[in-house]
Here is the input.
Amino acid sequence: MAGMDRQDLEAFVRHGSQEAFARLAGRYARMVYAACLSQLGSPEDAEDAAQAVFLALARKAGSIRPERVGSWLYGVAMRASRFMARSAARRARHEGEAGRMMASGASSGGSVSAGVPAETRRQLMAELERLPAALRETVVRHYLGGQTRAQLAEELGLPSGTVNSRLNAGIERLRARLGRRGVTLSAAALGPALAAAASAEAPASLLASLPALASGGTAALAAGAEVAAIADGVLRIMFWEKLRMAAVAVGAAGLLAGAAPLALSTLPGERPPRLAPAPPAAAPVQPVAAAPRTVTGRVVRDRDVKAFEAVVVKELTGAVRVGDRAACKAKGWSSTVKRVDSDRVLLEPRELAEAGDAVEFAPADLK
Here is the structure.
């Protein structure tokens, strides 16, 4: 990506530029503030949570992928809002004020103009957090951040057709997931509802605080004890989420020699860390004969499969069975073979795949 996010993120990480950080954070300030406001209702609490989000950004900037800044910030904003909502200090300060919070959320979040109740908007924002990172990034940037489709294509380095497909797929998934919650909204109504949820402008005091937050640790003093506590709490939550993700990954790969390093697990939007290679595994007692240990293939598009709901792999170099593990090293995703039809394999990875991606298959019984 040759966009502004990459330039400002690199300038901040490499040179500590407060101006670059303020520009980067300023582009997402309205989106972050709106996400916090949709969950908390109180403008004062939403501003504190938003400051905590950008304090976390300053501390974790080196691990964030430039093309996932929006998705990462949105996820942290939702975590910060939940953390603050659970805090004893906030419960004490707002005890008995639930009605006022709902009224504030309605006036600030645009539920009247959009015709969408505040509770529905909160559910919508929660489901947006659960979208795959690539879909969430495009939806967040377009509907909450106000970027046009042309700007998205330039910023993310994607063809316009891919941008449109991701936006349509993201909206369709949101519609389906809201339907499972008993909320019926058409795809045409979801876009305006998201835009209305992000209609509140970020306070001038929040924008003015961004350069000071760039210092990370020392910014905690300027931001205040409560904001620093929220940022620390959210970063601890993210750390434990990584450990849980690593535990799941290690458990799934328990038959493989050696254990996967915990640090290999990353949250959506973060860069995987560079680690030294693991020591070679001991030779198997009964090595497999001349048959190859892996089978390779290539992702293709298939009209029989809905966009981004599944991936079809062809050009296989050997036999593949249901249950085999599939991995795309270039894009960092893995999956399990769901179906095998003659010369093609059906996968359902959590992340998107593109036509031409190389895929490696490891047999399920590989020791």
In short: Residues 325 and 336 are 5 Å apart (CA to CA). The first helix runs from residue 4 to 15. The domain at 295-362 is CATH 2.40.10.170 (Thrombin, subunit H). The longest strand covers residues 295-300.
